[in-house]
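Researcher: Let's run the pair from yesterday's discussion. Sequence first, then tokens, for each.
Model: Starting with the first of the pair.
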Amino acid sequence: MIIVGYIRILILSLLLFGIIILFGYTLHILNNLPDISLLENWQPAQTTKVYDCKGRLLTEFFVQKRQFVPIEKIPDYVKNAFIATEDKSFYTNIGIDFEGILRALITDIKAGRIVEGGSTISQQLVKNLFLTSERSFNRKFKELILAIKLNRRYPKDKILEMYLNQIYLGHGAYGVEAASQVYFGKHVWQLNICEAAVLAGLPKAPSKYDPFKNLEGATERRDVVLSRMVDEGYISEEEAINCKMEGIQLAEDKDEEKISDYATEAVRRWFVKFYGYENLYKGGYKIYTTFDKDIQQNAVEIVKDKLWYLQRIFGIRPLTDKEKEELLKAYKSQKINIRLRPSNIYIGLVYSVKKNKVKFLIRTLEGEFTYPKAKKYFKKGQPVYVRYLGGGKFEFVPYLETALVAIDHKTGEIKALVGGYDIKKSKFNRALQGKRQVGSAFKPIVYLKALLDGYTQISILKDEPIAFWDPDNFEEWIPENYEKEFHGDVTLRYALVHSLNVASVWLFDQIGEDPVIKLAYDLGIKTPLPKVKSLVLGSADISPLELATVYSTFANLGKKCEPYFIKKIVNSEGKVVYENSPFCKQVVRPQEVAVLRDILEGVIQEGTGKRARVLELPLAGKTGTTNNYTDAWFAGFSPDITTVVWVGYDYKKKIGWKATGSRTALPIWIDFMASYYGVVENIGEFKNPEGVAYYPINMETLSLATENCEGKNLLFVIGTEPSFTCEGSYKLLIPKIKEIIDNYQIPNLDHMSFEEWLYEKTNSEESSEKVENKQNMEDNNVVVPDDFIFDIEVNKNFED
């Protein structure tokens, strides 16, 4: 009996000790549980989407791909599908299902480990929000308590709303709205019962039942969900049978349609700068841009094709010491056991070159590619860019780089932005961040200032030896033309059309640095410009975007529209938090800009941009080439779009022999403009402002052409055109013949020349109006129509 008593005491002691331990454990768990009240302001991480100008998806930024949708927008059959499958007693349980727990416990005991959870919707939610996926009794106990506390604090519909927006449903989709878009290309409220059953079957094993990866398994799982919906009375047997007879109709996998390039990266950087990293990846914003998806993708592909071709044509230049150092550093930063992904670009290290075959290492992985004249261009130990094509195959990626900016000059909207060969090769955006010498592409700024100062297309410039003292290098600087020849006296038009350096420097010297620099800033250049004579030849480093702004101002007849690529931003609640619109300002008189455009059209028709004539479009533009062929440009525009292209190496070195802007940048520009009009079918026309007119000019005498001498139609600001014809006749432009005849009784001029008579009349006290020449008329506010010419020849009777 005594022994029995001791045993009882021992059992009771152990039981009490166990209760104390359990109480302490429970108290510890309770004191260390997450605060359920934090869900009062629950905001799930949502996907930020970027759209083009037509509302098409460009890309997405997210930590979890999710779009929140309120419970009111989720159809009952969608909710019921999840409840029937995951927690049939959802609306009646306290957050846990004792029957499910018992069933799971028996299964776990038989297996000797945790293999089944028996989790309710509430348990799954708290696990996703507060806990890890660790399979342990400690985590499970926390889950049970949190589920009960969740149900005591929040109504069932709120819990279900959080669950349906939080749960992972495979293929990168979190929540029913994102999953609906991914699998079926529609909103959750547009789903039918059959599609709802597919989604409800995913939480158990999202990857296993992903219909994109395992259509057969997803179909079997869907049928299980349909049967459970019938069992719970949510749908009829007939509805379930009809669904089971159908296959799963999936939308196209839109991951292929999204783009990741310099345009979307520019959007990402801009948004992070002003709204922060958290908002970008979790805020669920909608960012509407000015980019056109088709135009942008065309630009990206054109750049890749052309650079690959240019690299072969001009050859591969030896790496500079700095360039090699940086590439080797990047090579070593790659993981040793790197897993290659198709289309990605890597840095390899050459270890063997035989004939046209180059073998290389990407850390421990071997690869090879073929390249013409490989032994000439590749050496052992040389770092190279390669793209993995899949299946163990690689291709060489050019060292050569580029930048392209296309702006709708009427609004400032950027339609395409390419910052390099491929963003997988380098994230440095050369279109926005890079600054390089622009060469002769700067010249039109100087020529525009000359036109504003009264020069015309036929003003004479000096293209002859000239020298300036260079205080920086303590020597004379003597500019040269591209072909190393001088042309003597040339017209302003000829000098710009044929890009004469010496004549341009002479003109710049006549005008002065300060007025030109001020004009450059007005036109859109933000980079500080040096006061040096070589500025006219583009010695200043300027970004492609800046140069594109200048040329878009030319295209828009002196009205500068600030370039931008973000149109509107809407937050997850549908509120517009940022909106942009065109900001345009007239910075230069349109008349002189129209004359400059006429000259730049001549660059296309008869000058350094002749290759572009193949497009048979109204075009204007200018090439740019720097010393030693290190930078090549083409900047130009049509009536609808302004585009600037740069080609060169990141580290300044020669592109190749005779690698001018017309041979390198212009071919890219041409292909892009052709592709642009493949998307935008309507072709505009260049329009002239009031106050300018075309006049036929005989280029030998630089006077007005008649039917007896050839002429070229050139644009002039009215009042600046020549006063004499090629035959020596004086051209008097009179808008009101009757008024002139009434005011001046023109006599027979046999006894005096017309000039003598005109001088006498316009300088006499009796004269009520001066008509000395067309300029005098304009000085007296007489408007001269473009198409009216009144010809009075010297020594000719007026009445005749």
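Model: Moving on to the second of the pair.
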Amino acid sequence: MSSKTDTVTEDYKEKYGFSDPVESYAVQGIKGLSERVVQEIVRLHDEPAWMEQIRMKALKHFLDLKPPPWAPDLADIDFQSFYYYARPTAKAADSWDQLPEYIKKTYDKLGITEAEKKFLAGVGAVYESEAVYHSIKGELEKQGVVFTDTVTALKEYPDIMRKYFGTVVPFQDNYIAALQTAVWSAGSFVYVPEGVKVPMILQAYFRINERNMGQFERTLIVAEPYSEVSYNEGCLPADELVSKGHSFTQIQSVGLREMVATHQGRRLAVTDTYAHPHNGQMLTIVPQSSVSAFRLTPEHPVLAVKRSAVAIRKSRNGWLPEASTAKLMKAEPQFIEAGKLQVGDFILYVAPTETKDDALLSDTLLKILGLYLAEGGVSYNKKLRRDYLSFSFGESNSEKLLAEELINLIHSIGEHASIYKSRGKYWVVASYSKTLIELCRSECGNGAPRKVLSERIMLLPAHRQMLLLQYYLRGDGNRYSKEGRSMMIRASTASKNLAFQLQEVLARIGVFANINLREGSEDVIAGRKIVRRDQYIVEYTEGKKWSAVRKKGNVYFVPVKKILSEQFDGTVYNIGVRGDETYLVKGFAVHNCSAPVYSAQSLHSAVVEIIARKGSLVKYTTLQNWSRDVLNLVTKRAHAHEDATVSWVDFNGGSRLTRKYPSVYLVGPRAKADIISVAYAGPGQIQDTGGKAIHLAKDTTSKIISRSVSKGGGHTAYRGLLHIAKGAKNVKSTVRCDALLLDPQSTTATYPYMEIQEDDATVTHEASVGKVGEEQLFYLMSRGISEGDALSMVVNGFMEPFAKELPMTYAVEFNRLMSLEMTNAVG
């Protein structure tokens, strides 16, 4: 990799990755844990004296404590190494447009605007330590519903905050709660008045941007009697073609460890795959030809050179500014967000450079394969019950000479073929050679729309590929002279993939070809229906003195012809390629967008307090997918009063270490708790999760369902508590924890605690640890399902109790996430 390219990659990480420069923050990080840090947080928030007193007591309590003996990994954390506060903006925005551009881009990637449009709901965004945005639909405000950040709530709703803050999770409760109470910042405050039913989902998005950062959001939800509320914490479209260096694959089908071509012209393995819902703008970048157009979201970076940077004349009479070839050759391409590209800017088409000669593919065979690609096909002779190979040529004398040359080529390799005239017009060459039939099928496919070049051919040196291409063009090509000065060469094919392969082969030999589409049609001629397929026209010009496309090595600078925009609502996809951090879409270089992953750890420590008053309903859903460098230490607890229902729906799929046990204290008669805890642990991950139900009143019910999947040496643990206090009569509770191990390296553990102090309680407890059964996989694979897809189906079925509790958009993405994690998991 050249030093210039290294610079490009690093430049992307600074400008276009998810990690934003801290120099733009209103207040930069405060590192280490001390009274001064706490006092500075109080000062910046302009907090009342009572909150400062609570913080100071919590800090002293934390410093006096030792990590609990059952969590030895907490003792290894250096709490002085984290930044405990950073403010990206001077104040929380009242409208989305008020946010700084770099924060809006970050949350656009997370889909926050999509959520706001789709659900017309409240949305909160926490970036580093601060709330940067909160909004809620006006009609709800009129009903008295409050959805804001906790810092604002301290000022605007001080009585409610003082009444409830720390009553569910006091700082004396546990080691992490003490730390969190001392240094909390931001989070969400939700207040729902009596009898109000919030008809949509309130959502929050939490973001850690900087390494060694600690995020300590504090969420407080108060649901007054008989109210209801749900709260959620919270690229390219399908079918875009990704170059594998020898073929093209739809992006949604690209799997882990598959090889794809990068902007360096080499092939590297895919290390990550992503999918998420997108509701918003979708751009179509159209280069020289419409078939080469590709779609992507506005923030997705494309390797490009701005025309303005290489222009030598200004735009005149509507024409684009003239670009200097000399300047263009010296320009250093940059990764530019698609939304910032303009017509006339140069995007980079990259010809893969990896080659591998194959002596078994002789020059004679390449000539035969070139003609087969253009004129040949394999059919079945019903009378002889045999496959046969045929080549169809025109009736002209030149076509006859080409057919006779083919006969000689076939005979020269020791195979037999014959020539005859079909219906007295067309020349046909036929052969029943099994060797030749198998060669043509394996190297070039069969059937006009399904013809493709094999990996062996696509990796041949360029001069050998040119030999095949010359004979293909003799069969399927046309030459048009332009006033004797240049020659236009065109070839048509019904195979879209073959058209892109031919474009790539031509690029390897120094020619940039355009691809245009002649759409298919239907006609009725003499009473017969005639269907004409789409035809892809590959064309280029020989002897042209000037071209809008400029070449440097294996890279072509192609001007953007037009940019189209449309509204899109669906799933978008992305892949990660560690090393070059790029891949090619229809030959054009784009960057893979990915969240920042640092070798240094970051800390996420949250406290969520819920007060569900009489007859209220609160549902709290979390989809946690922090990057693998984050320590995720969370306390979530609710008080459910008489006839209230609290539901925790919790998924943990990211972070290096997670310790989270959502709990419900059932303090009033007939209160109900539902806890669904799901965890996925991959390589290097520990997911220590579970749930707690504390029955303090009669006629209360609870259900705890825990599901976990471990893969690649990951470790999951269920840690739960069921407590039925003396006097809590007629309690009913169900606890079920199931674990699935996908390989011998992965582990799981169960730590169920049951404290039952009443004789009439009805309690059931079930636990199981299983492996994916060979019979299950065999059953699915015997019905044509691949092993990876079969495993995904088994795991998604195992996770079904969680997925069915999610809103549809999240359920689709959860299933997609698990499917991606399972890709290539077996073997």
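Researcher: Give me one sentence on the second I can quote.
Model: The first helix runs from residue 3 to 15.
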